Every structure is written in C-alpha cells, then in structure tokens.
Protein: TIGR01777 family oxidoreductase
Amino acid sequence: MKTIVIAGGSGFLGQVLENYFTKIGYTVKILTRYPKKEYDVYWDANTLGKWTIVLEDSEALINLTGKSVDCRYTDKNKKEIYDSRINSTQILGKAIQLCEQPPKVWMNASTATIYRYSLDKKMTEINGEIGDDFSMNIAKSWEKEFNQFDTHKTRKIILRTSIVLGKNGGAFIPLKTLAKLGLGGNQGRGNQKVSFIHEKDFVRAVEFILNRPNLNGIFNVTVPNPTNNMILMKTIRKKIGMPFGLSHPKWLLKIGAKIIKTETELVLKSRNVIPERLLQNGFSFKHPTIETTISDLLN
Ligand SMILES: NC(=O)c1ccc[n+]([C@@H]2O[C@H](COP(=O)([O-])OP(=O)(O)OC[C@H]3O[C@@H](n4cnc5c(N)ncnc54)[C@H](OP(=O)(O)O)[C@@H]3O)[C@@H](O)[C@H]2O)c1
Structure:
C-alpha cells in the first residue's frame, strides 16, 4: 500500500488531505504531538525518535506543522510560530537523510504571504517580491531551513499556499459568521487583493505535483485571479442571503482584533499572488473564481 506521511496533519489542511488521499487508496499517517487515531504517530516536532520509521519507503512527506498565525503577535507567540515551523522542518530534513528508502517527495508548507503587500504587481514564483515584516521573515526562514537540505533521492517542493477556503476550517468559517451577523462588510478599504484557493483545488494541486516526478521547487498554490476583500464579502453576503453588512474601518478592526486575539494583517494585507508554475504545467482549477468557490462551500 502506498503511504503518505503528513507532519502536522491533524489540523485543517492535513485533514482535508487525509480524507482525500485515504479515499483514493493511500495509507495516510499523521505525525502529531497528540495521537488519537489508528494511523496517528507520536512525534514532538523537534527531535528524532521512533516516528522516523514511518518515512521509510513512503510516497510523500507533507509537512504542515506550525502554530496557527491567528493569534496576537506577542513575543511568546512569535517564538512559537517560528520554532514550530523551523524546528519541524529541520528535524524532518535530518530524518530523511537517515532513511534507507526516503520519501519520494518532500513537500513543505510555506505561505503566499511571503510576497509583499501589493495592489497592482502580480507576484509569480519568478518575479514576486519578497517582503520584510514578521510574517514574511518567518516564511523566509522556513524556506531557508528547507532549502539547506540536500536530499538527492527525495524531490523537494515548497507550497506557497494562499488562504484556503474550506467547509470545516480555515478563514471561511469566521467570515461566514460575520456575514450572518450582519457584520460582513468590507474590512478596511476593501480594495486589498485576496488570493485564495478552494480546499478541493488545494488537494488537487498537491496531487498534481505528487504525480509529476519532473516537478521541483516553489509553487504558488492559489487561484489564477485574486479577488478583492469587497467582492469576497459581497459574494458571501449574497450567497447566504444577507442583504446588508456593516463595514469595518481599519481603526475598528484594530480594536476588534485585540478583543478576539488576532492580527489585522490577516485581513488587511493585499495579497496578489499568481500560480504561474501550476498553470504552465497544465493544472486546471475546478473553482477558479470566488463565486463558484463560495457557492460550492455553502452547498
Ligand atoms: N490554512 C491556510 O489557509 C493556510 C494557508 C497558507 C499556509 N498555511 C500553512 O499550512 C500549515 C497547515 O495549516 P492548517 O490551517 O492546517 O493549520 P492548523 O490547522 O493550525 O494545523 C497545524 C498543525 O501543526 C501542529 N502544531 C501546532 N502548533 C504546534 C507547535 N507549537 N509545535 C508543533 N506542532 C504544532 C498541530 O498538530 P498537533 O497539535 O497534532 O501536533 C496542528 O494540527 C501551517 O503551517 C500554515 O501556516 C495554511
């Protein structure tokens, strides 16, 4: 049986991948600090241990480990956001190097947030401009740690994924809740670009890359045409039948973010990211627009 190992796979994206790959016949093993299910394997995301055995002869290792960035950026949280990503990447790299039959491919999460705030310049893998703030520097360190490993038998892929919209997790749930409460207007000016991807297309993109042994390196995993915050919120309101939605100017968002313990960056940053390499290699999206994405998720 073909095995896929997902480190940090107990969360939103890991569960989406596990469901899909299990349905099409793979055995999916999850590296987690809190094993609960049959194929969960204990690791501490930090040191080598018995867990390394599961990597032997696997089809793929997908690393999604990382403390959620949906929190206040206190020093303690910042350290945990950094350490959880860098340490897990480092220990997985070492574990691969110790394997006799290492995974055929190692995909490591990164983020489309690595590119700077942009209203007009489209950020591709080749031409995108990498920025310099807390989140962008985390992404840079994450990728640097990954890139330092020379795994000659294991193909390496960086997934610069945008906001994934899904039924059971991620950003869509709080946005839908806001809209239902009549609070789903623009966040900030509303003109900030929103790069997003439907959870099904995220999984399809991972499978697409998995099945093409010639592909290596960085992939932007996001729809071809970003929307903007105003259209995103308007579409959600329309699809749930809410005729109005209170907008949130920046100052109000700042207060709200403190109350619900998050950062305004998550909604105010303009993300204008293009999946050039997926498109060049022939990937086609089932849900390329915000209309079809939201309709499908509400179905
Ligand atoms: N969701 C998105 O829209 C999106 C977009 C771009 C990039 N990403 C990146 O993709 C990855 C997965 O995203 P997700 O939404 O699935 O995240 P998630 O639901 O928060 O899951 C992340 C997993 O990481 C592990 N983890 C959390 N804190 C940890 C810590 N301090 N030390 C070690 N492990 C820890 C947890 O596994 P255990 O508790 O079971 O050990 C958790 O299940 C993340 O790195 C995220 O930054 C996500």
